[in-house]
Design a protein that fits this description.
Blueprint: E1 5-7, E2 10-12, E3 17-21, E4 28-33, H1 37-56, H2 59-75, H3 77-88, H4 92-115, E5 119-120, E6 133-140, E7 143-147, H5 155-166, E8 170-174, H6 180-191, E9 201-203, H7 208-216, E10 222-226, H8 229-238, E11 243-247, E12 252-256, H9 262-274, E13 284-290, H10 294-306, H11 326-341, E14 345-346, E15 352-353, E16 356-357, E17 360-363, H12 370-373, E18 380-386, H13 389-397, E19 401-402, E20 404-408, H14 412-421, E21 426-429, E22 445-446, E23 449-450, H15 455-461, E24 463-470
Parallel strand pairs: 7-8, 7-10, 8-9, 10-11, 12-13, 12-20, 13-18, 17-18, 20-21
Antiparallel strand pairs: 1-2, 3-4, 5-6, 6-24, 11-23, 14-17, 15-16, 19-22
Length: 471
Amino acid sequence: MDAKILFGSTEAVNESFSERVNPYSGEVVSRAPVCSADDALNALRIAKEAAPRCKQSTLVQRCDWLLDVAQRLNSNREAMARTITDEVGKPIAFSRIEVDRCIETVRLSAETMRTMHGETINTDAMPSGRKSMAFFRREPAGVVVAITPFNFPLNLVAHKLAPALVAGNAVVLKPTPEAPLTAYKFAKLFIESEYAIPDALSVVYGDADVGSALIGSDIPRVISFTGSVPVGEIITKSAGIKKVSLELGGNAATFVERSADLSYAAKRCALGAFVNSGQVCISLQRIYVDAAIYDDFAMLMAEETRKLVVGSPYDDATFMGPLIDDDAALRAFSWVQRAIDEGARPLLEPRCEGRMFYPCVMADVTDDMTIVCEEVFAPIVSLVKVASFDDALPRMNHSPYGLQFSVFTNDLQLAQRAIDVLDAGGIVINDMPTLRFDIQPYGGVKLSGVGREGPQFAIEEMTEIKSVVIL
């Protein structure tokens, strides 16, 4: 099936197409139009014209719109999961989970918007004030540009579209080139709904030229981007005076303390390091282990990793499928080889067969190795021996990234201290840093980004506060 440009409710015909191949089989699974900067500007003009209608629509219509989309998606759950697996090679069991999470995200956005409201203000609270009727309320920002990645090609689209539309904005979506059909099918659910606001949503495809046209235009008021740090830096420099929300890279770390349940910690760390083949911004990459338990934990971690099923993403039992492309696999394997040359020790034999990169646990890793300094975005995790949390702390924080960290411990005081001193947007106690609930605020500090996602927090990013005083 072909994806098509969606200019509002109109499907545009484009004779030039790019093909998407399945990362596992190499077969062509979808085709998408090759869009131009002019296509992007056309979509923005349509969104600008639709924005007043979006703003004037009733909240009940917008909430019913989202709930209708969630219901329609639920009715097509298996087909959508299959499309995700076709385009990005995600194991089918996890594609189904992504569809379920997407449904929750859409429903939660509607429920959240129903209860969001402004507040009255006591303008006579200070000597310089006076009595009045004063309040503030939230209004839609106008036009939102949403740019999304390949690793969660459905749910991360939902985290932008659902809050933006239910808040009363018009949206132009540029989905990842790796999953155009997933985004197209999802967008069609919005456009074909009986509650849809005409032309509120457009979809264009492309890379740098299309993205630059969307970001550089004066039309959008909000840019919401999830992707790499280099692209995030370009957006920051090019966007001008706009609201910019950036969900960027990570280098997630955990500390395993001697009082922790080691068996449980190893199971959760294996899941956190290797789910989605490590292609997650909060994928566990660095494990700092108390020296007193290092050898025991390393053994358990290797055992848990060996249990993971690597194979066809269409098999229900598969835990790990392929990486997104050949370059990703070659890059990951070269990083492992470099670490071995620098003195690291693989607990399982490094294995790469085309795009199939098997989970890799590296021991005896030191702080200066590239494998722990940079974001790997592959199924590789490193074990670092430390004397204590005081030894681990500066190493965990000494990173340009700060998305999510975690600590495994039964020491309450240590847990409380970790929450205070770890420099990240999210801290998890007694689980992997890869844990994310869609209702929570999600985002990072330092190079990991600006702003927060999660329906309530995304709505705040995509609305403006209007202050009112009546005398």
